[in-house]
Amino acid sequence: MSNNVKPLKPWLPKPQNEVPVKQYKGYQPPWIIETPEKSYRSIFKWGHPSGAKAPRESLYKLLKKTFGMTDEDFQTPIFTGLEEVEVNSPITLTKEQIKKFEDAVGKDFVSQDPYTRLSVAYGKTMIDILRLRNKIVENVPDLVIYPDTTEHIEKIVEICKEDKIPIYVYAGGSSVTRGVEPMRKGSITLDLRKRFNKVIKFNETNQSITVQSGMMGPELERVLNNAPEEFGAKRRYTCGHFPQSFEYSAVGGWVVTRGAGQNSTYYGKIEHIVLGQEYITPVGKVVADSYPAKATGPDINQIMIGSEGTFGILTDVTLKIFRAQPENHYKFSFIFKDFESGVAAAREIMQAEFGFPSVFRLSDPEESNIMLQMYGIDHDTPVDKILRVLGYEENKRCIFLGFTDGEKKFCKNIHRQVKKICKKYGGFYLTGLVTEGWEHGRFADPYMRDNLQDFGVMIDTLECSVNWDNMLEVHQFVRKYCKSRPNTLCLTHLSHAYPQGANLYFIFITKMSDIDEFVDYHKGILDHIQASGAAMSHHHGIGKLFAPWLEGQIGSNQMDIFKALKKHFDPDNIMNPGGTLGLDLKESEKVFKRPKW
Amino acid sequence: MSNNVKPLKPWLPKPQNEVPVKQYKGYQPPWIIETPEKSYRSIFKWGHPSGAKAPRESLYKLLKKTFGMTDEDFQTPIFTGLEEVEVNSPITLTKEQIKKFEDAVGKDFVSQDPYTRLSVAYGKTMIDILRLRNKIVENVPDLVIYPDTTEHIEKIVEICKEDKIPIYVYAGGSSVTRGVEPMRKGSITLDLRKRFNKVIKFNETNQSITVQSGMMGPELERVLNNAPEEFGAKRRYTCGHFPQSFEYSAVGGWVVTRGAGQNSTYYGKIEHIVLGQEYITPVGKVVADSYPAKATGPDINQIMIGSEGTFGILTDVTLKIFRAQPENHYKFSFIFKDFESGVAAAREIMQAEFGFPSVFRLSDPEESNIMLQMYGIDHDTPVDKILRVLGYEENKRCIFLGFTDGEKKFCKNIHRQVKKICKKYGGFYLTGLVTEGWEHGRFADPYMRDNLQDFGVMIDTLECSVNWDNMLEVHQFVRKYCKSRPNTLCLTHLSHAYPQGANLYFIFITKMSDIDEFVDYHKGILDHIQASGAAMSHHHGIGKLFAPWLEGQIGSNQMDIFKALKKHFDPDNIMNPGGTLGLDLKESEKVFKRPKW
Fold this sequence. Notes:
Chain A has helices at 40-44, 57-67, 95-105, 114-119, 126-133, 150-163, 217-225, 227-231, 251-256, 264-267, 270-273, 300-304, 339-351, 365-374, 382-389, 408-424, 433-441, 445-453, 471-484, 515-532, 547-554, 556-569; strands at 110-111, 143-145, 167-170, 188-191, 199-203, 208-212, 237-238, 274-281, 284-288, 313-320, 322-323, 331-336, 359-363, 398-403, 428-429, 457-467, 488-498, 501-511. Chain A is of the alpha+beta class. In chain A, helix 19 (471-484) runs antiparallel to helix 20 (515-532).
C-alpha cells in the first residue's frame, strides 16, 4: 500500500561501510579496512562485515602522544584474529535430542557448524574481543537453532525442560556484559536474527507496534519511517530508541537488558517505551498486557524487563511509537568553563519543566578535549584561541550538546530555554555544528575499537546511574581510579538525564593487550563505581560480567526477590544459566563495595 | 528557617467544611449538615467531621425528575447511622500477645476501644457505607496500633510472624475496594495517621522528598508548597498527586494501590512519581533504591507498588517533587458535538508531542448535561440556546476541560495547540470558566454521596483503563449495562490520558438502599468492564472487592507470578489476608469474563 505522506528528511548517519576512510597527511598506519574472511575477526569485529573506522589523523597523533607511542608502533597489526576458527568443544547432546530440535523447527534450521556455534557465543566487551583475538574459545553452544515462530520457541523450551538442556539466546550480539555467553556445556543457542524478526501488528490508533524480539534496530526504524507505504498509515513514525549499538542490536536485547537509546532523555529508556510483552518460560507463556496504565497489582512488564533471559525467552514486544519529525531537531551545543557549571546547567534544564531535549550530552574536560580535536577544533585553531581568550580553558572547558524531538513549537521553546539556562551558567553557544559532528559518528565509533586494538590500544566503556547530589563525587572518584593507570585516557560524559539525576558514562582508552591485565582494571572500575554510591548500570545491564557486584548493589533482600522469581519461572535453571544476574553465584564469587566517602 | 520566595497563588479549593450550603429558592430537604456525634455516621461519612455538601437546587430538581421522586420523598432522612456504635466482636488475642504489642510501641498506642476498632475497619465504597448505615459490623481488628517509627513496625511484624497474627493497615481510609477491611479474626490494624506521618528527608538537589507512608495528602502538599520556610529551600514545590480523595488519603495508600491523581496526565500516576520505597515484610526489610533509572534487573519499585499490603508494610516513600507554578495553569474548556469527536480530539492531543495538559477530562453526553446544570448553564439559559443553535445538541454534546502545569511557555504552547486540535474536531471554546467550576468541586463531590444517600439515592463509581482503539466500544458496552437499570444516571468521563489510551470513569447514581441489590448491580458492572476488554482498574486498585475478577483480567500464569512473590514475602499469609489481590481465593470464588464482541 502506498501513500502520499511526504518523505522523511534523512537524519540517521550513513552506515559505516559506506563512509570512506580519510587519507592522512603524514604517516598512515596500515589500518585493516578490508572485509575479513570467515575468521575470529569476522566474529569479534563490530558491525557490518565490510565496515571499519580508522581514527582521524588528529586523534592518531593524540593517541601516540598519550601512550608514548611512535609511528614505529603502528607498523604491524597484532592479534588480528584473521585466522580460520578452531572449535574443540565436542557436542554432548545426543542424536535423539538433536533430532527433537530438528523436528521442532526443521532440519535446515539447526546448525552444528563450528564457526556458527562460535559466532553466537560472544558479545562485544573487550574480554570477548581479547579472547577471540587470542583464539581462546571457552564456551560455545552445541547447537544453534533458528526459530521462526513463538510455537517453535514453545517446543524448544519444552524439549529443554524435559532434558534440562540450558538455553541461551542471541540476536544483535552487542552485549558488553557477557550476556549471551553459553556457560554450560551441552547447551543450545537460539539465533533470532534469521527468522524471528517480523512485524506482528502495527496499530496507528494506539500508536504501537508489536514485533518479534529478533527484529533489528534499523529494520524496526525502516518500517516505522515508512509506515504509510508499509501499513497504509497516515503518518511516519519512529521508535525513538537509538543506542550506540542501534545498527547491530535487536529489540529483544534492548528489553531484556533494560537498555537506553541516545535519545532517551525525550523518549525514555526501553522500559518506558515497552507497552506489552510475551515470554515463553518453563512454566508457560507469560503475557504482560498493553494497557496504557493500570492498577491491577505489581507491574508484570517491569518484572520481566531486565530479566536478561533468566526467566524465559522474550518472544513478542509491543512498543510505543512516536511521530517521526526530524525537521524538529533543533540542535544546540555549548561550551562551559568547567564541569561543575555544566552539571548545574544540565540539572536546571531537567528540572525546569519545559519538556526535555532528546539527545543530551555533557562531556567532561578530558572528553571535551578529544571531541574538539575530532570535530576539527584543534589546539591553536582560531576557534580554540577565541575560546581561551573568553576564559574557556583547555582541560577545564566542557562541551554540552544535544537536540530536540517532538512538536515544532515545543522543540523551539526547549531550544530557547536551554540557551537561556546555559547562558546563566556561563555557557557559550557553539551553534548546532558540534552536534552535527557527534551525529556523524554516533553509531560509527565502535568500529574504531577494532582498528586501534590491532595496535594494542584498547577502548572500553562502563556506565552508571547517579543522582544529582552525587554527580561530581562519582565523576571524580571513578575517574581517579581510571586515571591511576599511567597513560590512560578516561573520557566521561553525562547523558540520559532525568530531573533526579543522569547516567555517567566512562570511556577508557589505554595501551593494553593482556586479558588478565584488562580483567583486573575492569574489576577495579566496577569496584569504584559501586563504592561511589552510583547504580552500577544505567543501561548496559548486568549479564555474567557484572553479576558478582549485583547483590552488593541492590542488597541481599532484594536479590532474594529475583531468586524467588527465578525459582518460580525456571526451577531447573536452564534459562541463561551460569551467573547471569548473579542468580546462581557462590557466596565467594560476590563482590560488595560500599560507598567510601 | 524562612525565605524570601514569593508566596504561592492559592489554587486548591477550600476545605468543604468552610463552604456554606446554599439556600434553595423552593423546597429544601433537611440535608444533614451538622457534625455528627461519635456514631456509625461519623465513621462512614466522607472527609472532615464537619464537612457536608448538599446538591445545588438544579441538581436536586434533576434527581427528582430522573428517579421519579417528589419533595415528599425528601422529608425524612433514613438509615442516617447517627446511632452510637455497637461492636460485638470479642477480642481473641491473648493478654500476652496484647502486652507484646504494648511493649513494642507503648501502652498508650494500642487501643481496644470498640469505636476505634470499627473506625479503621471500613473504606468508602457503597458496600461499606450501606453496611454501616445498617449497623452491620462484619469485620473489626482486635487491636488498633499507632506506630511511630519503622522500628515499631519491624517489632510488630516480628510479633505477628511468631504468632501468625494477621496485620492490616489503615491511613486515609478512602479505599473503594475493601482494601483495608480486616477479614480475619484476631487481627491487628496499624493506624498510621496519628504518628507515622513525618517527613524523613527533603532533597532539593535531587528534587525529591522522603516521607513516612501515613503522611496525608494536604500535609505533604503544605510542606512542599512551603519548602522555603520548612526546609530553607530555594523554591516552592508540589507533589502533583491530587486524587479526588486528596484531602483524606495518605501517600502509602496512593502507592500500594497504584493510584492516580487528577493531574496525572502531566505528573504521571503514583508509580511514575515514586522514586524509592522501604517495606517491612515477614522476610525482612525491602529497599527499592531511588536512582533516576537503572539496568540492574527487574524493577523492585514496580514489584512492590500495587502489592496492596499483601507483601509487607510500606514504611518510607521517596517521591519526585515538581516546581509549584499554579500561575501557569492555563485553563481550557470546550464543547464538542458528540463523544466521538471529543475522543478523536483527546487522542490527537495526547499523540501530538507538545507535552501533556495536567488535568484532562472529557465528559460524555450524560455527564456533560449534569455538569452544565451544576455549573450554571441550565437548559434554556442564553448560553444553552446559543449552543443549540450552533449545533451542540443536548444529550449529544460533550464537555472537555483541563489545565496545564509546567513552565510558562511550555504551558502556553499546550494551551494553543489544544485549542487548535479541538477546533479541528468541531470543539467550541468555552474559556476556562467551566474548568473553574470543576475545580471548585473537585474534592467536595464525595461529601454529596452521604447527603443523597440519606434519602435513598446512591452514588458510586467504577473505572477502567482502555486503549484508544477500544474506547468507544467500552464506553457503550459498560454504559448499556449501567443504564439497563431503570431510572439510573450513568455519568462517564475520559481522564488520565496517555498517547496509547486513557481511563474511563463511570459514576452511577440511582435510587437504591438495599445492600444485596447494590452488590448485584456492582458485580454486573465489573463483569461488563471485564468483558469489554478494558483493564478493570486504572487507579482504584483491586482490594478484596474486585479480587475475584483479577485472574480473569491478567491471566493465570500472571496471577501465579503474584502468588510466587506472595509466597516469598509472606509464606504464612499474615499480610492483609482474606482475598486481597485474589491471592487466597478459592477457584469457585473467581470470575472470568472475556470480551464478548
